[in-house]
Specification:
The chain is of the alpha+beta class. It is built from twelve helices and twelve strands. Strand 4 and strand 5 form a beta hairpin. Helix 4 packs parallel to helix 9 and helix 11 runs antiparallel to helix 12.
């Protein structure tokens, strides 16, 4: 049967799309440009595909707690949250699965969201991460397509294995995260027993206005514990809220889960010559190159009094950063800064930041010139001015909070955010070789349990990718699938 000639992909307005894999940036390492209207259209439409629950991370548990500073890192950042050892800050945590709906099971094999809202004296800092240090893609233009592979088939309305493996077979950058997902860590025993990561590269800015690149790590003090797939499948049927209940009951008993917060810090200039692109979300920075620096302890110690008010209405955005903490040219992060807040405006209303759970705490007050809109339940700014500059004592911008300029170079074009041809295979191979034989065997078994359900041409493509990462990795999967 002759293969049909593919149609030209277009925007909703019928404009042909020249590239559906890379977004438009200012140079190969520069930030994403707002003129990439197709990227904005694609992500904005994606945010509106489900109502009213979250498109991703719909099922979650949440709790409040404290963050306590245990080490001085003022040489790297001027953020007041880290200003003195012993300082405590109130925190909201939301811990979720990614792909499932609000009523789905907790114990499925999935990446877990690890979102924290720090109510600092300089405004809210939202650390919106996962329980894995990497992700499946490095460019947000691919995100809606990837998530569609995790959702229900448009014809049958059932979950299916083929779409995800078809996508991954053509996007080898996903191999690192796929290896983590199908390893033992793909099913945590519970929220207290998994790590959390900022995943993206962010930046610190110190009192001398120097920039450092940084990665955030929350290492569980309870120890990593994982759940066998057979037990997870059983619980999915008989106790689908297992993780949610486990966290709530542990806090009720006074067994407060804790995580050690550490950072990896890279001098700004190192990014130009480091062997990996340091802004590539599919890569880690080996600890031998940039060791962990301990900063403090996170403790979850108070349950919400009303789930809807305090967890369902909680809105996290990577765009919420306190002075001294900032962004990087990571292409996924750049898009999330824009699209997370857009999703909340759609889901909760334009004044979502004024809901009690999202409003800043303590002496920090909200002083924008935003007025009106849905759910405006306060005095709406009273009789004060709603424009700036003004002559009536209104809030003014403060240049003291300005960040140092970010040097960029190159032409505005669409660039892959990686440095070498084999970049996407080295770290997954290294991870496989770090595993014990038992862990490798369980990883292969989990992959084959899903991959066996897809057409053989896709199986063969995936075996090629696994083999390029590690010959034993590919051979084990090929043998289990009955492929030569």
């Amino acid at each position: 049967m002759a293969k049909a000639k593919p149609k030209t992909l277009t925007t909703a307005a019928g404009i042909p799309v020249p590239d559906n894999q890379t977004s438009l940036t200012a140079g190969p390492r520069g930030p994403t440009l707002m003129q990439d209207h197709y990227l904005v259209e694609k992500l904005a439409h994606f945010n509106r595909e489900r109502i009213p629950e979250r498109v991703v991370h719909a099922k979650a548990a949440g709790a409040f707690g404290t963050f306590t500073v245990t080490a001085d890192i003022s040489r790297y950042t001027r953020a007041k949250i880290f200003s003195e050892v012993g300082k405590q800050t109130e925190v909201l945590g939301r811990f979720s699965t990614v792909a499932g709906e609000k009523g789905s099971a907790d114990t499925v094999r999935d990446v877990r969201g690890f979102a924290l809202k720090f109510y600092t004296e300089e405004g809210n800092w939202d650390m919106v991460g996962n329980n894995t240090p990497v992700f499946f893609i490095r460019d947000a233009i691919k995100f809606p397509d990837f998530i569609h592979t995790q959702k229900r088939d448009p014809q049958t309305n059932c979950k299916a294995d083929t779409p995800q493996w078809d996508f991954w077979s053509q996007v080898p950058e996903a191999l690192h995260q796929v290896t983590i997902l199908f390893s033992d860590r793909g099913i945590p025993r519970g929220i207290p027993y998994m790590n959390g990561y900022g995943s993206h590269t962010y930046s610190f800015i110190n009192a001398r206005n120097e920039r450092f690149w940084v990665k955030f790590h929350f290492k569980t003090q309870q120890g990593i514990q994982c759940m066998p797939a057979e037990e997870a499948d059983r619980l999915a049927g008989c106790d689908p809220d297992y993780h949610t209940r486990q966290l709530f009951e542990a806090i009720e008993r006074g067994e407060f889960p804790r995580w050690t917060f550490s950072v990896q810090v890279m001098p700004e200039k190192d990014a130009e010559t480091y062997r990996w692109n340091p802004f590539d979300l599919t890569k880690v920075w080996p600890h031998a190159d940039y060791p962990l620096i301990e900063v403090g302890v996170l403790e979850m110690n108070r349950n919400p009094s009303n789930y809807f008010a305090e967890i369902e209405q909680a809105a996290f955005s990577p765009g919420n950063v306190a002075p001294g903490i900032s962004f990087s040219p990571c292409k996924m992060l750049q898009a999330r800064i824009l699209m997370y807040a857009d999703a909340h405006r759609y889901r909760l209303g334009t004044n979502f930041e004024r809901l009690p759970v999202n409003a800043p705490r303590g002496t920090q007050v909200q002083n924008p010139y935003q007025r009106d809109g849905s759910m405006r339940f306060d005095d709406n700014g009273g009789g004060g001015p709603n424009y700036e500059p003004n002559s009536f004592g209104g809030a003014q911008a403060n240049p003291a909070y300005a960040e140092p300029p970010l040097k960029i170079s190159g032409d505005a074009d669409r660039y892959e955010q990686k440095r070498g041809v084999d970049d996407d295979y080295i770290q997954p191979g290294n991870l496989f070789r770090l595993m014990s034989r038992g862990e490798q065997g369980r990883l292969i078994k989990a992959i084959v349990g899903s991959l066996k359900n897809v057409p053989q041409p896709i199986q063969k493509k995936m075996v090629e990718h696994f083999t390029r990462a590690d010959k034993a990795y590919g051979a084990g999967i090929a043998k289990a699938l009955g492929l030569k």
